[in-house]
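re: ur question from earlier - yeah i can do the single chain one, its not a big deal. heres the input i used so u can compare w yours
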Amino acid sequence: MAGQDRTNLWGINTTLNQVHKKAPKLENDTWIELPEISGELADMMLQDIRLIKNQLGFYADLYAINSGQKLHRETRVSTNINYLLYEKLKKFVIDVVPDDWDKSTLEDALSKATTLEELVSGDKPLSISNEIYSEIEKERIMLETAIYKFFNEDNKDKFKDIKKLSELFAADKFNLFT
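and the output i got, formated as C-alpha cells:
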C-alpha cells in the first residue's frame, strides 16, 4: 500500500475509483465515478451506527425483560386463580353439597391436590418454580375434570329440580359478596 492515500480507506468505491484511474482506458469506457465518503465522515457515520446498535441492543434487552415480567405476572395470576378454585371447591364440598349427593369424585380430587393444599394452607410464595407450576396446572385439570364428573355423571339425576339447583348455587354459600 505504499504510495496510496491512507486518509480515505473507507470502502470499495474509493478502491474501485482508484483502480479505474490507474487502469488503461478503453475506447467505449462508460465508467461513472462512484461516490466516496471522506474518512472523517466515515468515522462519524461509524460512531452513529455503533450508537444505534447500542440503542437497539438496549431496546431488545428491555423487550426481553418486559416479556419475562409479563410471563411471570401471568403465572402468578394463573396460580392465584388455581388457589381460589381449590379453596372454593373445598368449601363447596364441605359446606354446600347436601349429604345425599355423591361427592366422592370431588373429595378424591381434592385429596390428591397435595401441591395446592400445601401452598394454600401455608404462606403463598410470590414466585414458584416451573416444576411446582406444572404440578399446580395438572392438579387444576384434575379438579376441573372432577367438577365435570360431579355434575354430568355422579349427580346427573339431581339436576332435574330447578329449585334445588338454585338453592345449591346461592351466592351467599360461596362468600362471593364478602
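The helical segments are 12-22, 39-96, 104-112, 114-121, 130-154, 162-168. not sure if urs matches, ping me
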